[in-house]
Design a protein that fits this description.
By secondary structure, the protein is an alpha/beta fold. Helix content is 36%, strand content 17%. The chain folds into 2 domains: 1-30, no CATH class; 38-318, Glycosidases (TIM Barrel, Alpha-Beta Barrel), CATH 3.20.20.80. It is globular.
């Protein structure tokens, strides 16, 4: 078929018709749509605040047309950077903050889940002794509740769809029973206070697996978190980081996302491919259409309660708008 196409192109050129060079190229797979009713995670960065409303309109329009249910702001504040009120250290930026993005998304019919406070040193801080870990988590909780109060104007908005806690939980740092007790107590108190502020809204938390415990232990730990704290768990699929082999992934995921024994767990589809090493600054690139198609096919066997895509920055519709 390719040879015939080339022969046809040469014939046209010999006749003086300049056309069809594109037809001779190898066929490219089209970008597959998002998973059904997907929530797309947006990870705010300071450089994004220079993006104009017109460009954000385009991004949200594309999300709506591709069938997204809504967007998740991964955090409202990252360390000292506060994205829901503008950044005092960058007064010359002409873009929009998260409060305005909430309005723009709502105008497109998208729902919004709001992330709270994220500590850049979280994974370093949680390695401290149990005696001080409790105090650290209490400090995180205070920072996040302060962020929640700053969103008070949208608590009753029809587009508001719950809270996201940016404290990613894994199967490595929380292996001891005492650590797990401290974590669960923290989440119970935290989610209880969020419920007092917004009784009708749910809270979400992401978890990921590095293969540090047996699948039965990991699934039991995650299920215990969900049952005792009433948080909705989102399990990262690990395709972007390649932390697990396909065989390992199936062993863990069958215990958490089985269609025979459904649990209250959503699935995060990682739509990026990590390029950096374990001890290097994180860098990643876009996933190829063929890889995305295969990823969606592989994960059709599971039955998550929600589909989540991480992240907006790596979707084709954001190219030229959100830098990597």
């Amino acid at each position: 078929m390719v040879k015939n196409t080339l022969r046809h192109c040469l014939l046209l050129v010999s006749l003086g018709l300049l056309a069809c060079a594109a037809h001779a190229r190898s066929p490219q797979l089209p970008w597959q749509p998002l998973p059904d009713n997907a929530w797309v995670v947006y990870q705010p960065q300071t450089r994004d605040m220079a993006l104009s409303e017109i460009k954000w309109h385009h991004i949200f329009k594309q999300l709506q047309q591709q069938g997204a249910k809504g967007i998740v702001f991964q955090w409202s504040a990252f360390g000292t950077a506060h994205f829901n009120q503008g950044l005092p250290e960058t007064p010359n930026l002409s873009g929009v903050n998260l409060e305005r993005l909430f309005e723009l998304a709502a105008q497109r019919g998208l729902k919004v889940k709001i992330g709270l406070y994220s500590d850049p040193a979280f994974f370093k801080q949680i390695k401290q002794s149990p005696e001080t870990l409790d105090d650290y988590l209490a400090q995180l909780q205070r920072h996040s509740l302060q962020q929640a109060m700053r969103w008070q104007s949208v608590w009753q908005h029809s587009a508001f769809a719950g809270w996201y806690i940016p404290e990613e939980i894994d199967d490595y740092h929380w292996q001891s029973p005492l650590q797990q007790e401290i974590l669960i107590k923290h989440l119970q108190e935290f989610i209880g206070k969020l419920k007092q502020l917004t009784p009708e809204q749910d809270t979400y938390l992401s978890v990921y697996i590095g293969g540090h415990q047996e699948p039965t232990k990991t699934s039991a730990f995650f299920k215990r978190i969900a049952e005792q704290t009433e948080v909705n768990l989102w399990l990262q699929d690990g395709m972007g980081t390649q932390a697990l082999s396909q065989v390992q992934r199936q062993s863990y995921f069958n215990a958490l996302l089985s269609c025979k024994k459904p649990s209250n767990t959503g699935l995060i589809y990682e739509v990026f491919r990590q390029q950096s090493g374990p001890d290097e600054t994180f860098t990643a690139t876009y996933v190829e259409p063929q890889q995305w198609q295969q990823q969606l096919k592989q994960e059709q066997i599971y039955c998550p309660t929600q589909n989540i895509v991480f992240s907006l920055r790596y979707l084709p519709l954001a190219k030229g708008y959100l830098q990597l």
